[in-house]
């Protein structure tokens, strides 16, 4: 079963819970898996696979005191041979109508497929377009020295290629389904190389733990790294706008609230940041503004055989403080709900 369930089951007091049901990637082992709570009583964990591919099914027998005395069951694999509940399917078809209309709305076009398939191995076109959209979004809201220096996001946030031709809202939501929001953070020029070192070494240089995603950067950034070097010494050079990092200045970066909260262990958990607009809305605006689009893949994160030249040895963490003029903006919750409901109704 999924390992995350075990501490939950172990921590419950007696009579609080006897069965945990779940639907998660990574489920394996006996069905059900039986563990003990704080008083040594049995708790049944029945977790099937993600996205409704398996339907958990278990029957429990209880005595007069509510204790389980027997059980039987197994996950049911749902395939195209599994009969649908026609009444429920009719309701789902009805519910889907407004969401399908929303998803079908054309917001722009591209002459090149916005590829996602290479995002987890290096630069990818859709990842670069998203990073550029993030930068432009914040740059349009600020002036002078309040403008951001660059934008970046985790490659794991990019989930699907957007094909050549018309681009719909549904395609954008499929590619960026998580409802992440924009944030602006500030890092010193002394600390920023440690962030990039963590990314190219897959090891956070502030806490020493694994970084679990690659990254995509906006067009002003060039990152050179040598994978042959030892972990912690792989970053060779970073330039922003063609200039080396300046230890003495502060850099404003646009990223995702997921990363600011410590997601993928790319950044130490930040605080005090403003939550701005949703990732998919930012990309929608960018596509509308630049259509018809003709983007090309650029070399932004580059492998080299060089050695470190501007990788700071600073050990202090970055700051989550925002520039003056930043303000908390209400996130359009309806957009996130649409994304979630479209996902559920697609099952």
TrEMBL record:
Q: Which SUPFAM superfamilies does the record associate with it?
A: 5'-nucleotidase (syn. UDP-sugar hydrolase), C-terminal domain (SSF55816), Metallo-dependent phosphatases (SSF56300)
The answer, when asked if 4Fe-4S is one of the entry's keywords, is: no
Q: Name one GO molecular function term.
A: hydrolase activity
Nucleotide-binding as UniProt keyword = yes
UniProt GO BP:
nucleotide catabolic process
Record keywords, A-Z: Hydrolase, Nucleotide-binding
Disordered, as annotated region: 303-325
In this chain the 5'-Nucleotidase C-terminal domain maps to 106-266
Family note: Belongs to the 5'-nucleotidase family.
Know the name of this protein? 5'-Nucleotidase C-terminal domain-containing protein
């Amino acid at each position: 079963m999924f390992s995350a369930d075990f501490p939950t089951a172990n921590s419950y007091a007696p009579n609080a819970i006897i069965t945990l049901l779940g639907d998660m990637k990574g489920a394996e082992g006996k069905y059900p898996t039986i563990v003990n709570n704080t008083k040594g009583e049995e708790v049944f964990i029945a977790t099937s696979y993600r996205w409704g591919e398996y339907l958990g099914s278990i029957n429990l027998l209880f005595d007069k005191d509510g204790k389980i005395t027997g059980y039987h069951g197994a996950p049911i694999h749902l395939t195209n041979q599994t009969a649908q509940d026609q009444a429920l399917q009719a309701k789902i078809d009805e519910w889907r109508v407004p969401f399908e209309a929303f998803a079908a709305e054309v917001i722009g076009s591209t002459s090149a497929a916005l590829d996602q398939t290479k995002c987890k191995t290096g630069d990818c076109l859709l990842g670069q377009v998203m990073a550029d959209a993030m930068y432009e979004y914040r740059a349009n809201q600020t002036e002078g020295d309040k403008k951001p220096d660059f934008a970046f996001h985790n490659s794991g946030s990019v989930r699907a290629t957007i094909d050549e031709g018309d681009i719909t809202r549904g395609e954008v939501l499929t590619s960026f389904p998580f409802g992440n929001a924009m944030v602006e953070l500030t890092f010193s020029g002394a600390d920023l190389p440690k962030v990039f070192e963590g990314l190219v070494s897959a090891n956070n240089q502030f806490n020493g733990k694994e970084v679990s995603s690659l990254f995509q950067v906006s067009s002003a950034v060039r990152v050179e790294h040598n994978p042959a070097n030892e972990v912690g010494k792989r970053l060779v050079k970073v330039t922003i706008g063609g200039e080396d990092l300046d230890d003495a200045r502060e850099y404003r970066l646009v990223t995702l609230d997921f990363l600011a909260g410590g997601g993928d262990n790319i950044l130490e958990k930040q605080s005090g940041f403003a939550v701005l607009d949703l990732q998919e809305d930012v990309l929608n605006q960018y596509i509308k503004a630049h259509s018809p689009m003709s983007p090309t893949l650029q070399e932004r994160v580059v492998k080299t055989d060089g050695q470190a030249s501007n990788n700071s040895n600073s050990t202090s963490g970055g700051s989550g403080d925002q520039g003056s003029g930043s303000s908390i903006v209400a996130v359009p919750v309806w957009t996130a709900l649409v994304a979630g409901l479209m996902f559920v109704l697609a099952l």
